[in-house]
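tokens incoming
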């Protein structure tokens, strides 16, 4: 069996971290994945070799043994292939083996021999299964929602390679939320190895409401008379119109909290955040002479200095 340099196969150094191994494997797997190279036997074999290298190097125990063997890996495989022509003898009952036709190539390490027996026999039985079992890649898509759709929940159709998938979001969905739908990514060796569809939620800005967590904020403009005398205003919320009482003498910038009129809480959609109204007083402009006279009279009656 030909010696395989798993580090060269993945294009990494022997000092590579687990994260670097994982990154290198993923990059190569994307290039040589069978879904992208249908009918290409060379790419298929390359993909199997990449999987084999990743299987050994991503496992700290297997990687350690692989490093210990070094070039003897190839030598041992050739000796195994020529087992019938070599006379292997057991020395002193110490589980140490050597090739009788090559006195310079006996192994003095008990663990070394045990590793061959345990590790390689295990790999020989699992090579076909491991080489044929592979994970499909994940697909990613972005799903845009209006604030109203985030409030009520929404449905979208996403076109995959061979099917249209209906995605339904729950009330209370939020910006930069990530959903993972298992089995709807790239095809693996079987259904259980299929990749996932990763959905990134983007909630679009709203003209009236600003969202902070589960609470909503907006400005409500009232005229000067309502600010002075008080009254009621009809406010549009995401759950419908509500009447809000304005106290006489309300000041510009005052915040009024409307309980349970914010966004539904994602984990508990029967509970809501709050809506905060910031009062903005509209000052009349472009008054005619008669209107100015009335304001002056009001000012004088209230003894307000000029």
């Amino acid at each position: 069996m030909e010696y395989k340099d798993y580090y060269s196969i993945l294009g990494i150094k022997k000092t590579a971290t687990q994260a670097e191994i994982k990154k290198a494997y993923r990059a190569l797997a994307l290039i040589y994945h069978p879904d992208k190279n249908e009918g290409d036997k060379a790419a298929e074999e390359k993909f199997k070799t990449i999987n084999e290298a990743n299987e050994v190097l991503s496992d700290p125990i297997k990687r350690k043994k692989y490093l210990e063997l070094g070039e003897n890996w190839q030598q041992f495989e050739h000796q195994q292939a020529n087992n019938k022509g070599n006379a292997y003898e057991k020395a002193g009952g110490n589980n140490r083996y050597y090739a009788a036709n090559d006195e310079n190539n006996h192994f003095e390490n008990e663990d070394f021999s045990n590793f061959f027996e345990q590790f390689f026999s295990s790999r020989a039985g699992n090579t076909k299964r491991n080489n044929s079992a592979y994970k499909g890649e994940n697909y990613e898509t972005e799903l845009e929602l209006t604030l109203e759709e985030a409030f009520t929940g929404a449905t979208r159709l996403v076109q995959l390679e061979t099917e249209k998938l209906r995605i339904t979001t729950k009330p209370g969905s939020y910006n930069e939320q990530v959903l993972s739908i298992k089995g709807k990514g790239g095809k693996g060796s079987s259904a259980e190895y299929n990749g996932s569809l990763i959905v990134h939620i983007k909630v679009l800005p709203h003209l009236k409401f600003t969202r902070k967590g589960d609470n909503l904020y907006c400005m409500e403009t009232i005229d000067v008379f309502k600010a002075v005398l008080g009254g009621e205003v009809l406010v549009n919320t995401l759950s419908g119109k509500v009447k809000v009482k304005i106290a006489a003498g309300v000041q510009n910038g005052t915040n009024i909290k409307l309980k349970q009129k914010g966004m539904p809480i994602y984990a508990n959609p029967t509970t809501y955040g709050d809506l905060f109204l910031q009062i903005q007083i509209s000052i009349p402009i472009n008054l005619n002479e008669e209107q100015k006279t009335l304001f002056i009279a009001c000012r004088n009656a209230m003894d307000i200095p000029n």
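note: Confidence is low (pLDDT under 50) at residues 83-129.
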